[in-house]
Automatic annotation (TrEMBL):
Pfam families: Fer4_7. GO terms for molecular function: 4 iron, 4 sulfur cluster binding; metal ion binding; oxidoreductase activity, acting on NAD(P)H; quinone binding. GO terms for cellular component: membrane. Residues 4-33, 52-81 form the 4Fe-4S ferredoxin-type domain. The keyword Thylakoid does not apply. It comes from the Bacteria. Gene3D superfamilies: 3.30.70.3270. PROSITE patterns: 4FE4S_FER_1 (PS00198), 4FE4S_FER_2 (PS51379). This is NADH dehydrogenase. Keywords: 4Fe-4S, Cell membrane, Iron, Iron-sulfur, Membrane, Metal-binding, NAD, Quinone, Repeat, Translocase, Ubiquinone. It comes from Tessaracoccus aquimaris. InterPro entries: 4Fe4S_Fe-S-bd, 4Fe4S_Fe_S_CS, NADH_quinone_OxRdtase_chainI.
């Protein structure tokens, strides 16, 4: 497997924060909010996290794959292509739109 960029499969992410906590360089940041849903008539409302932002700072990333290995829902995967160099550090911050991948579901 080629260790290039890391892709985020948006709809698999539960905003558990394990990737951000386990990252040795703290290059991942994410924010989320909680929403309530009622799964079936008569059932109690359930609270679940909804992902708002997800960012990887490629200037800090070591491409070690710890985030991918630790993700319990397989929302992070190797992307294949390396992240292109940039003239400005801010251009190495990639958000959900740049990291996104369709789950194929």
């Amino acid at each position: 497997m080629i260790h290039g960029s890391i892709d985020l499969i948006d709809d698999l992410c539960t905003s558990c924060m394990i990737c951000a906590r386990e990252c040795p360089t703290w290059c991942i940041t994410l924010t989320s909010h909680q929403e309530q849903s009622v799964p079936a008539p008569g059932a109690r409302p359930r609270t679940h996290n909804v992902l708002d932002t997800f960012t990887i700072d490629w200037a800090l990333c070591m491409y070690c794959g710890v985030c991918i290995e630790q993700c319990p829902t397989d929302a992070l995967v190797w992307g294949g292509a390396h992240v292109p160099s940039a003239d400005r550090l801010v251009d190495l911050l990639h958000d959900r739109g740049q990291l996104g991948r369709d789950s194929g579901a």
